[in-house]
Amino acid sequence: LIQFDLRAYANAVVSSAKLRLYSVNDGDVWNAQTTILAKRNTGAFTASSVTYNTMPASPDAGQASCTASGYNTWYEWDVKQIVQAWLSGTANYGLTLIQDGLTTARGKVFKKSGAYAPQLVLDYYWPVKIAASQGGISKQVLSMMIAPAAGPVSKKVIGMKTAPVAGPINRTVF
Minimal CA–CA distance to 98: which of 26, 157, 40, 156? Predict the structure, then answer.
Protein backbone atom coordinates (compact mmCIF):
# COMPACT_ATOMS: atom_id res chain seq x y z
CA LEU A 1 0.00 0.00 0.00
CA ILE A 2 1.25 3.47 -0.85
CA GLN A 3 -0.29 6.94 -0.73
CA PHE A 4 0.81 10.46 -1.71
CA ASP A 5 -0.76 13.72 -0.47
CA LEU A 6 -1.98 15.53 -3.59
CA ARG A 7 -4.35 18.07 -2.03
CA ALA A 8 -2.22 21.02 -3.22
CA TYR A 9 -2.81 19.93 -6.84
CA ALA A 10 -6.63 19.72 -6.78
CA ASN A 11 -8.11 20.65 -10.18
CA ALA A 12 -4.74 20.57 -11.96
CA VAL A 13 -4.65 18.88 -15.36
CA VAL A 14 -2.25 15.94 -15.49
CA SER A 15 0.00 15.54 -18.54
CA SER A 16 1.87 12.58 -17.07
CA ALA A 17 1.99 10.71 -13.77
CA LYS A 18 4.49 7.94 -13.06
CA LEU A 19 4.79 5.90 -9.89
CA ARG A 20 8.47 4.95 -9.50
CA LEU A 21 9.69 2.29 -7.08
CA TYR A 22 13.22 0.99 -6.61
CA SER A 23 13.51 -2.80 -6.30
CA VAL A 24 16.20 -4.17 -3.98
CA ASN A 25 17.55 -7.62 -3.16
CA ASP A 26 16.79 -8.47 0.46
CA GLY A 27 18.20 -12.00 0.12
CA ASP A 28 14.80 -13.57 -0.55
CA VAL A 29 13.70 -11.68 -3.64
CA TRP A 30 12.34 -13.56 -6.60
CA ASN A 31 14.33 -12.60 -9.68
CA ALA A 32 11.89 -13.99 -12.27
CA GLN A 33 9.78 -11.73 -14.47
CA THR A 34 6.40 -10.86 -13.01
CA THR A 35 3.67 -8.31 -13.64
CA ILE A 36 2.88 -6.05 -10.71
CA LEU A 37 -0.38 -4.11 -10.64
CA ALA A 38 -0.83 -0.71 -8.99
CA LYS A 39 -4.54 -0.67 -8.14
CA ARG A 40 -6.55 2.33 -6.88
CA ASN A 41 -7.84 1.80 -3.35
CA THR A 42 -11.51 2.57 -2.66
CA GLY A 43 -11.20 2.86 1.13
CA ALA A 44 -8.90 4.23 3.81
CA PHE A 45 -6.18 2.27 5.61
CA THR A 46 -3.90 2.78 8.60
CA ALA A 47 -0.32 1.94 7.64
CA SER A 48 0.69 0.80 11.12
CA SER A 49 -2.08 -1.78 11.46
CA VAL A 50 -3.25 -2.83 7.99
CA THR A 51 -3.03 -6.54 7.09
CA TYR A 52 -3.81 -8.54 3.96
CA ASN A 53 -7.25 -9.28 5.40
CA THR A 54 -7.99 -5.64 6.35
CA MET A 55 -6.52 -3.80 3.35
CA PRO A 56 -8.96 -1.63 1.37
CA ALA A 57 -10.66 -2.88 -1.78
CA SER A 58 -8.85 -2.13 -5.03
CA PRO A 59 -11.02 -2.90 -8.08
CA ASP A 60 -9.58 -3.70 -11.49
CA ALA A 61 -11.21 -0.56 -12.94
CA GLY A 62 -8.44 1.72 -11.65
CA GLN A 63 -5.10 0.06 -12.22
CA ALA A 64 -1.75 0.28 -13.97
CA SER A 65 0.76 -2.50 -14.60
CA CYS A 66 4.52 -2.92 -14.77
CA THR A 67 6.48 -5.98 -15.85
CA ALA A 68 9.40 -6.39 -13.47
CA SER A 69 12.39 -8.71 -13.34
CA GLY A 70 15.58 -8.37 -11.39
CA TYR A 71 16.47 -5.92 -8.67
CA ASN A 72 18.58 -2.80 -7.99
CA THR A 73 16.60 -0.90 -10.61
CA TRP A 74 13.67 1.51 -10.86
CA TYR A 75 10.26 0.29 -12.03
CA GLU A 76 7.53 2.63 -13.33
CA TRP A 77 3.75 2.51 -13.54
CA ASP A 78 1.76 4.96 -15.68
CA VAL A 79 -0.83 6.16 -13.15
CA LYS A 80 -2.02 9.24 -15.08
CA GLN A 81 -5.70 8.25 -15.18
CA ILE A 82 -5.76 7.34 -11.48
CA VAL A 83 -4.05 10.58 -10.42
CA GLN A 84 -6.26 12.72 -12.71
CA ALA A 85 -9.34 11.16 -11.09
CA TRP A 86 -7.97 12.04 -7.64
CA LEU A 87 -7.26 15.64 -8.68
CA SER A 88 -10.76 15.89 -10.15
CA GLY A 89 -12.50 14.90 -6.91
CA THR A 90 -12.33 11.10 -6.54
CA ALA A 91 -11.15 10.27 -3.01
CA ASN A 92 -7.41 9.52 -2.82
CA TYR A 93 -6.95 6.38 -0.72
CA GLY A 94 -3.66 5.49 -2.38
CA LEU A 95 -2.64 2.37 -4.27
CA THR A 96 -2.24 -1.33 -3.58
CA LEU A 97 0.67 -3.06 -5.30
CA ILE A 98 -0.10 -6.69 -6.02
CA GLN A 99 1.33 -9.39 -8.25
CA ASP A 100 -0.93 -10.13 -11.22
CA GLY A 101 -2.39 -13.61 -10.82
CA LEU A 102 -0.84 -14.22 -7.38
CA THR A 103 0.50 -17.60 -8.44
CA THR A 104 3.37 -17.57 -5.95
CA ALA A 105 4.11 -16.17 -2.52
CA ARG A 106 7.41 -14.67 -3.64
CA GLY A 107 7.56 -11.06 -4.70
CA LYS A 108 9.53 -7.86 -5.07
CA VAL A 109 10.91 -5.67 -2.30
CA PHE A 110 10.97 -1.91 -2.87
CA LYS A 111 12.82 0.76 -0.89
CA LYS A 112 10.59 2.93 1.29
CA SER A 113 12.98 5.74 2.28
CA GLY A 114 16.27 7.45 1.52
CA ALA A 115 17.70 8.11 -1.94
CA TYR A 116 15.53 5.38 -3.45
CA ALA A 117 12.27 6.29 -1.72
CA PRO A 118 9.05 5.85 -3.72
CA GLN A 119 8.37 8.67 -6.17
CA LEU A 120 5.31 10.04 -7.89
CA VAL A 121 6.56 12.09 -10.84
CA LEU A 122 3.73 14.43 -11.79
CA ASP A 123 3.69 16.68 -14.88
CA TYR A 124 0.72 19.04 -14.68
CA TYR A 125 -0.65 22.46 -15.54
CA TRP A 126 -3.49 24.63 -14.30
CA PRO A 127 -6.55 25.29 -16.50
CA VAL A 128 -6.95 28.86 -17.75
CA LYS A 129 -10.36 30.58 -17.87
CA ILE A 130 -11.04 33.14 -20.57
CA ALA A 131 -13.64 35.91 -20.28
CA ALA A 132 -14.90 38.36 -22.92
CA SER A 133 -15.76 42.01 -22.41
CA GLN A 134 -18.35 43.88 -24.46
CA GLY A 135 -19.54 47.41 -23.75
CA GLY A 136 -17.93 47.48 -20.30
CA ILE A 137 -19.78 44.34 -19.15
CA SER A 138 -17.60 41.33 -18.47
CA LYS A 139 -18.99 37.84 -18.89
CA GLN A 140 -17.30 34.52 -18.74
CA VAL A 141 -18.04 33.11 -22.15
CA LEU A 142 -16.02 29.94 -22.13
CA SER A 143 -13.54 27.91 -20.21
CA MET A 144 -10.57 26.48 -22.06
CA MET A 145 -7.77 24.17 -21.16
CA ILE A 146 -4.53 25.64 -22.46
CA ALA A 147 -1.29 23.72 -22.18
CA PRO A 148 1.35 26.46 -22.08
CA ALA A 149 3.88 24.15 -23.75
CA ALA A 150 1.73 24.00 -26.91
CA GLY A 151 3.60 26.94 -28.43
CA PRO A 152 2.67 30.55 -29.17
CA VAL A 153 -0.83 31.55 -30.25
CA SER A 154 -0.74 32.68 -33.86
CA LYS A 155 -3.94 34.78 -33.85
CA LYS A 156 -4.41 38.06 -32.05
CA VAL A 157 -7.52 38.02 -29.86
CA ILE A 158 -9.12 41.39 -29.11
CA GLY A 159 -11.40 42.16 -26.18
CA MET A 160 -10.45 39.09 -24.15
CA LYS A 161 -9.09 38.90 -20.63
CA THR A 162 -7.26 35.86 -19.35
CA ALA A 163 -6.57 34.65 -15.87
CA PRO A 164 -2.89 34.65 -14.90
CA VAL A 165 -1.06 31.89 -16.71
CA ALA A 166 0.84 29.46 -14.52
CA GLY A 167 3.68 29.17 -17.01
CA PRO A 168 5.13 26.00 -18.48
CA ILE A 169 4.03 22.54 -17.52
CA ASN A 170 5.15 21.95 -13.96
CA ARG A 171 6.94 18.84 -12.71
CA THR A 172 6.75 17.71 -9.11
CA VAL A 173 8.50 14.67 -7.71
CA PHE A 174 7.09 13.51 -4.39
Answer: 40
Asked whether residue 2 is assigned to any structural domain, the reply reads: no
In a domain, 134, yes or no: yes
CA dihedral 150, 154, 157, 162 (to 10 degrees): 20
Regarding whether 140 and 151 lie in a shared domain, the answer is yes
Q: Left if phi > 0, otherwise alpha if psi is -120 to 50, otherwise beta: which for 130?
A: beta
88 and 31 together in one domain: yes
Three-class SS state of 147: coil
User: Does the residue 139 lie in any domain?
Assistant: yes
User: pLDDT tens string for the chain (174 positions)?
Assistant: 788 888 988 989 999 999 888 887 766 555 667 788 888 888 887 777 777 777 767 766 667 767 777 778 888 989 999 999 999 999 998 888 877 776 555 555 555 667 878 888 888 888 876 665 556 555 444 444 444 444 433 332 333 333 334 444 555 566
Q: Are residues 132 and 48 in the same domain?
A: no
